[in-house]
Specification:
By secondary structure, the protein is of the alpha/beta class. The protein folds into two domains: about 15-265 and about 375-390, Alkaline Phosphatase, subunit A (3-Layer(aba) Sandwich), CATH 3.40.720; about 265-365, Gyrase A, domain 2 (2-Layer Sandwich), CATH 3.30.1360. The protein is about 30% helix and about 20% strand. The chain has 14 helices and 18 strands. It has helices at about 15-25, 60, 70, 85-95, 100, 130-135, 165-175, 185-195, 215-220, 225-245, 275-280, 300-310, 320-325, 380, and strands at about 45-55, 75-80, 105-110, 115-120, 125, 155-160, 180, 205-210, 250-255, 260-265, 270, 285-290, 290-295, 315-320, 345-350, 355-360, 370, 380-390. Helix 7 (about 165-175) links the parallel strand 6 (about 155-160) and strand 7. The chain starts with 12 loop residues before the first helix and ends with a strand.
Length: about 400
């Protein structure tokens, strides 16, 4: 079983954000800055665009060396652990690792609410409500200081129209940024072109943009599906159009991903209800991700838990004490978020490549994802940095 680990010491997405903070004369999060070639121009360009393409891992991109995107690949980076959208996007927007911002997966046990919470929708794991509908004060739990709050620049955040005004987006993008919603790839490209070519107001501009549909297609159809290939080609064409549209605007265009994905299948799914002895050892439902599950154990069950995983699941799943992964730097350096330790359980289960582990609560439908992420394989952790300097 291949297990990799993320970098926070100069070759990760958080180090890119430290470099952009440096470029805009702002303090970073105390992390080393990524070394970028001066020719890329991030220190001087009037506009710097950072486009996050959800799910476009470096391994996938390498399959298409003739593409516009690969042709402008600068280097590979690692995302954070767990290699998942909620943790990685929060790291990109705050410039901090998960240990510091406390967002540790899609499902998080939030002690302050006494519940397992879906972080990005910000509601209970089962059902469609949001905590802000029940207790407005709860929205403060989402707040994380955006790294660009201190940028010496005009800041814009460009997201799908259905996402731009969600509690999570409002709370983590900060008060400085102007938020823009768009519809479709054409809408995204038009918005980025409009912002980059707007009249000079004497300030530099930083633009954060997010495209979710590549990841969505991977979840639905699988990484190697025709639907995902069609999506990649559309993104690649849009990237080429945007690059051409930015010519002469003194703009830098950067593109990264938050994680890569691997495919799973029903026969590579560990269902917790098929392991009642293991389920009985848990004090809470599985949290985190199907590729990196946090286990909260009932008192006195640790030895039995460790033995069960080793003897019954050892060929398809590894178990690590959460504190060991923290000490080994998987979640990044401190300072540590006050609730971080409560959000990573006692043990972390890492299924083998292509495997997932799932439980099911009442009211939840069956697990149907084909493409999955969150684990510690190189395919999930490695993401590309793509860059085009001013022309």
């Amino acid at each position: 079983m291949s297990v990799d680990r993320p970098s926070y010491d100069g070759e990760g997405v958080v180090n890119l954000m430290a470099r952009l903070a440096q470029a805009f004369r702002a303090p970073g999060a105390g992390l080393p800055a990524l070394q970028l070639e001066a020719e890329l121009g991030v220190d001087e360009a009037r506009t710097v665009i950072l486009w996050v393409i959800d799910g476009l891992g470096d391994h996938y991109l390498a399959r298409f060396p003739e593409s516009n995107l690969y042709g402008h690949r600068v280097q590979g980076l690692t995302t954070v652990f767990p290699a998942t959208t909620s943790a990685a996007l929060t790291s990109i927007m705050t410039g901090q690792p998960p240990r510091a911002h406390g967002v540790t997966g899609w499902f998080i046990y939030v002690h302050e609410l006494g519940a397992v919470t879906a972080w990005l929708p910000f509601g209970p794991r089962v059902g469609k409500g949001q905590w802000v509908d029940i207790e407005p004060e709860a929205e403060s739990l989402l707040e994380r200081e955006a790294v660009w709050e201190a940028f010496d620049a005009e800041v814009h955040v460009v997201q799908p129209h259905w996402l731009v005004d969600t509690p999570y987006s409002r709370a983590v993008t900060g008060g400085k940024a102007q938020r823009h919603g768009y519809q479709g790839l054409d809408g995204l490209i038009e918005t980025l072109q409009r912002l980059a070519t707007a009249p000079d107001n004497g300030q530099r501009r930083f633009v954060y943009a997010y495209w979710p549909d590549f990841d969505t297609r991977c979840h639905q159809y699988g990484v190697r599906s025709g639907a995902v290939l069609d999506q990649f080609r559309s993104i690649d064409t849009a990237f080429g159009r945007l690059r051409s549209a930015l010519a002469g605007s003194d703009s830098v265009l950067l593109a990264i991903a938050d994680h890569g994905l691997v495919d799973t299948a029903p026969e590579r799914t560990i269902y917790l209800d098929e392991h009642p002895e293991l389920a009985d050892m848990l004090a809470l439902p599985l949290c985190g991700e199907p590729r990196a599950a946090y286990c909260y154990l009932r008192p006195g069950t640790e030895q039995a838990f460790e033995t069960y995983i080793r003897e019954r699941m050892g060929c398809v799943c590894q178990a690590f004490r959460s504190e060991e992964l923290v000490a080994a730097g998987w979640f990044g350096p401190g300072p540590e978020h006050a609730q971080f330790r409560r959000r990573i359980g006692d043990w972390v289960l890492l299924p083998a490549d292509g495997w997932v582990i799932k439980d099911r609560l009442r009211g939840e439908g069956p697990f149907r994802q084909v493409g999955v992420h969150g684990g510690a394989s190189a395919t999930e952790l490695r993401v590309p940095l793509i860059g085009v300097g001013p022309s």
